[in-house]
């Protein structure tokens, strides 16, 4: 057994994962890894069996952390020997910057000057620290049995994803969002794998954020694509997120820019929002569970609109939206300086594993369940055993499956038979 890679080497691979996937050249590199027994010949062939260089690079990076304590140094040497010195240097620089003890910040505490540092060693992690794996593709059978009750989701790309990420703030009362860069890298990779075109902007003032949202809402691409995603990663308060200048952007304004009135190209198409930001100043200290059965249920009522007719179909101003929040109203969200925010860690892992056969609302329920089970520790302070609870709100009108990897073949003339479907 080779054993595992050292944690600080794993962390360096995670932090540089997106750049490695974008810039690495594999052919000679893998031969060096086989020659130095980091990979076996069968592993090399398994990597090569993945379709396209993008998936091959992901497969290689998923393998490396399990190939022993020498795998990192041999990998860096192989990069140098194949003319990729800049990647080796950046990897080694990442290992030098990692401190022995990383910290977890509740964002509101960081905003007040970072007086409470939460020891990472006290936090329980659900993932193994190896980063985002490959997104599993939808099977043709699953698509054929579920697409009729779902939103259409077959264009390539599925849509455009806009990520607004603020980590560095000129406003003195807002601290640097350590770990925010990890969230950005993970989301970028996740939505690339889910067949979205990703546009990202970092460290924008509030006005620049609004300008970017205006441009995004007017993209002509929306009319030809099936959906869109907006992810905002920043400091925040209830109902708003901050630009890097400390000025707020109201979330209702974000939703309005993409609603049926202001973005007609996206009418009747699903729009997904991800908000990684605090929604208040209070940490959730949690409560002890009481034994006993949960009581749920409430009387329902229904109001009929039968008999009402209009000559034109009208839409509510806002519909077909789903918004996931890192935390509940009035509370802080929690972020790890090394692995990123709790919410983005769990969301990326759930989506990569379950998007193949689970609609988005059910995936967000899985994220809620994982966040519910996490706990931050700050022994000897009022924040000891602090909790977080994510939530989502939805005006979706159909099931929203992302159908990763699925692509229908172009329609054939009827005399040639039934069209087939492919995965790519």
Question: How would you describe this structure to a colleague?
Answer:
The protein is α/β, with parallel strands linked by helices and 424 residues long. It is 33% helix and 14% strand. The chain has 14 helices and 15 strands. The chain has helices at 7-15, 17-23, 27-35, 41-48, 52-63, 71-81, 85-97, 107-111, 140-146, 180-193, 206-217, 251-257, 342-354, 360-372; strands at residues 103-106, 118-119, 159-165, 196-202, 227-233, 236-237, 240-242, 248-250, 271-276, 321-325, 334-336, 340-341, 391-394, 406-408, 421-423. It has a six-stranded mixed β-sheet with strand order 4-3-5-9-10-13, with helices on both faces. Strands 2-1-11-12 form a four-stranded antiparallel β-sheet. Strands 6-7-8 form a three-stranded antiparallel β-sheet. Helix 2 (17-23) packs across helix 5, helix 4 (41-48) runs antiparallel to helix 5 (52-63) and helix 10 (180-193) runs parallel beside helix 13 (342-354). The longest helix is centred in the middle third of the chain and has 14 residues, at 180-193. The protein is globular. The model is unreliable at 98-131 and 292-311 (pLDDT under 50).
Question: Keywords, please?
Answer:
6-stranded mixed β-sheet; single chain; 424 residues; 4-stranded antiparallel β-sheet; 14 helices
């Amino acid at each position: 057994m080779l054993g595992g890679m050292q944690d600080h080497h794993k962390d360096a691979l995670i932090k540089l994962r997106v750049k490695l996937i974008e810039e690495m050249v594999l052919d000679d590199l893998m031969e060096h890894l086989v020659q130095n027994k980091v990979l076996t010949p069968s592993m090399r062939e398994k990597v090569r069996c993945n379709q396209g260089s993008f998936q091959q690079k992901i497969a290689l990076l998923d393998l490396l952390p399990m190939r022993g304590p020498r795998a990192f140094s041999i990998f860096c040497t192989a990069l140098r020997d194949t003319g990729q010195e800049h990647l080796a240097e950046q990897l080694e620089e990442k290992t030098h910057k990692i401190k022995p003890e990383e910290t977890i910040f509740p964002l509101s505490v960081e905003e007040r000057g970072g007086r409470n540092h939460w020891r990472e060693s006290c936090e329980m992690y659900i993932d193994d620290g190896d980063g985002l794996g490959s997104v599993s593709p939808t099977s043709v059978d699953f698509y054929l049995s579920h697409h009729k009750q779902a939103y259409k989701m077959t264009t390539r790309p599925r849509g455009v994803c806009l990520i607004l990420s603020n980590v560095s703030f000129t406003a003195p009362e807002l601290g640097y969002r350590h770990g925010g860069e990890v969230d950005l890298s993970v989301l970028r990779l996740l939505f690339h794998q889910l067949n979205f075109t990703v546009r990202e902007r970092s460290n924008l003032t509030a006005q620049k954020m609004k300008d970017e949202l205006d441009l995004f809402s007017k993209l002509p691409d929306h009319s030809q694509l099936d959906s869109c995603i907006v992810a905002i990663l920043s400091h925040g308060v209830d109902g708003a997120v901050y630009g890097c200048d400390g000025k707020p952007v109201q979330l209702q304004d974000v939703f309005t820019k993409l609603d049926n009135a202001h973005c007609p190209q996206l009418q009747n198409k699903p729009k997904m929002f991800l908000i990684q930001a605090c929604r208040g100043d209070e940490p959730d200290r949690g409560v002890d569970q009481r034994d006993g059965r949960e009581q749920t249920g409430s009387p329902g009522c229904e109001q009929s609109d039968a008999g009402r007719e209009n000559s034109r179909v009208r839409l509510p101003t806002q519909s077909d939206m789903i918004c996931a929040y890192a935390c509940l109203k009035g509370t802080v969200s929690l972020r790890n300086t090394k692995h990123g925010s709790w919410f983005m860690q769990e969301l990326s892992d759930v989506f990569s594993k379950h998007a193949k056969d689970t609609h988005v609302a059910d995936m967000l329920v899985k994220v809620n369940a994982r966040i519910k089970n996490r706990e931050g520790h700050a022994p000897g302070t009022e924040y000891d055993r602090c909790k977080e609870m994510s939530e989502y709100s939805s005006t979706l009108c159909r099931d929203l499956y992302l159908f990763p990897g699925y692509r229908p073949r172009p329609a054939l003339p009827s005399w040639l038979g039934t069209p087939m479907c492919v995965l790519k």
